[in-house]
Amino acid sequence: VLEKRDLQDSIKPQKVEFRSLNFNSTLHWQPGRAREARDTVYFVQYKVYGQSTWQNKDDCWGIQNHVCDLTNETSDIQEPYYGRVKAASAGIYSNWSLSCRFTPWRETVIGPPMVTVVHSNKSIILKLQAPHSPYKRKRGSKIPMTNYYDLLYQVFIINNLLDEQQRVLVYEGKDKFIKIEHLRPGVSYCVVAKTYVPMLDRSSAYSSRQCTVL
Fold it and tell me: Where's the Fibronectin type-III domain (predicted)?
């Protein structure tokens, strides 16, 4: 009996957690203390906080991966959810390992905007596009994150002559088209942008650089 309990404990999944980017939400875990046997498989369930019954996630039932996509199961973004995982090896099942409570609207990481340099003379014109959620409108297009949050764009300019690291904030607001003027001709400038959510006081990572020489 003891040996069985030891095995149950040693294969129990660890560090069960939700990770979420723009509401693409996945449950992650690590194998138990035992060196993972080749036949170890995992079973995933989820529920809304306050519900008594757990739902099986059929696509993640008896899988060998350490990740399970729960994007569709957590689409009510204001609701808090839990996920849990158990392991089985050599016919022995571990107990369930529980995630922390996860509320997508509060905890998803919002990605940076997509930045396109449209045109330049003595100025740079930028087009900014908010990241998209995985959820779709009736017509099939993906719903932008601006539908769920009051997002601001922060635009930074890097003058490559001066300093790689010096990013100067040149714009903060909601406009999708931005004109940056009074730049020096012949100088290489790079632009990066972030999305900022005032209500949560959170910024995204920087977008990829768009560079241009005037």
Answer: 12-107
